[in-house]
Design a protein that fits this description.
Elements lengths: L3 H16 L4 E11 L2 E12 L17 E2 L2 E7 L10 H4 L13 E3 L1 E3 L7 E3 L1 E5 L2 E6 L1 H4 L8 E3 L12 E8 L9 H14 L11 E2 L4 E5 L3 E5 L3 E2 L11 E6 L3 E6 L2 E10 L2 E10 L1
Parallel strand pairs: 2-4, 5-14, 12-19
Antiparallel strand pairs: 1-2, 1-18, 3-4, 6-7, 8-9, 9-13, 10-11, 11-13, 14-15, 16-17, 18-19
Length: 279
């Protein structure tokens, strides 16, 4: 079997090419899957929206069985989407999570007034201050620092009388595509070069979809159905994990990969995320 460090090096080298294949939404290193069972052998896994028989693909669309010395494995994962932006379709499995909680806890509905609703992930500290930790698209989208955070979120009935925190810091999500300013520059360069063409690929990378908001009300440092968070640990493949979310409720899973590169769909477009944990 090929060593994992070799698989990771080759994956990094060829992921841009693999992501250019139609239907591909991600690339990672993980255990091969055969007839629904995970094998001991690891491979470069190519994540697709839908698995298509090779007979229906052109030769250029078929993922090679090996890349250099490394085996590949094609996995069907569907579209990878920031779920909480689609709550009107998804609803919530556990309606109690959409209710008003005081004190607030992790795993319940929240959001700024300009989005629908998302999940209050948990709590973190900076110095002596306590902050809500959640996604950028839940706390910060369309908002500025100091914006009110509602619990429950607006879609679940929250209003400005339900402010529980104020937006403090966030990491903006960089969508793929060419910004208008760069487009103008390219046109100007093309005119100067005459018949020559100029091509620049924009592939901004993201590592987190995250924001924090300073807590303004009483809170309990727990996550609904999980309990108190007692520390941190290095994430490793095969580790068992738990999640508590406004839309999905309580779920359990297992870490499949810690180096995934994936395309995530948002209402505004698609964002490329690297070094992601996949479960």
């Amino acid at each position: 079997m090929v060593r994992e460090e070799v698989l990771r090096e080759v994956k990094k080298k060829y992921e841009k090419e693999l992501l250019s294949y139609p239907n591909v939404v991600g690339v990672c290193v993980g255990r091969k899957v055969k007839r629904g069972k995970r094998l001991r052998e690891k491979a470069i896994q190519v994540l697709v929206r839908r698995k298509v028989p090779e007979s229906e693909l052109s030769p250029k669309e078929v993922v090679p069985k090996k890349i250099e010395s490394c085996p590949t494995d094609v996995l069907e994962v569907g579209e990878i989407r920031a779920m909480d932006l689609d709550v009107r379709k998804a609803g919530a499995r556990d309606l109690s999570r959409t209710e008003k909680f005081r004190p607030i806890v992790g795993g319940i509905s929240c959001g700024n007034p300009y989005i629908t609703a998302g999940t209050l992930g948990g709590f973190v500290m900076r110095g002596r201050k306590v902050y809500i930790l959640s996604n950028y698209h839940v706390l910060a989208e369309n908002a500025e620092k100091g914006a009110p955070i509602l619990q429950p979120g607006r879609y679940d009935g929250g209003s400005l009388s339900d402010v529980v925190a104020r937006l403090s810091e966030f990491v903006p999500i960089k969508m793929t595509g060419s910004p208008r300013v760069l487009s103008r520059v390219l046109k100007a360069v093309s005119k100067l070069l005459g018949s020559c063409s100029v091509t620049v690929e924009i592939r901004p990378e993201n590592r987190v979809d995250a924001a924090i908001a300073e807590v303004q009300v009483d809170f309990t440092p727990e996550i609904l159905d999980i309990g108190e968070v007692k520390g941190t640990a290095q994430v490793r493949p095969e580790a068992k994990v738990k999640k508590s979310g406004r839309t999905t409720g309580y779920t359990e899973g297992r870490v499949l990969s810690t180096d995934a590169t994936v395309r995530v769909s948002y209402d505004e477009g698609t964002a490329l995320f690297v070094d992601q944990i996949m479960t």
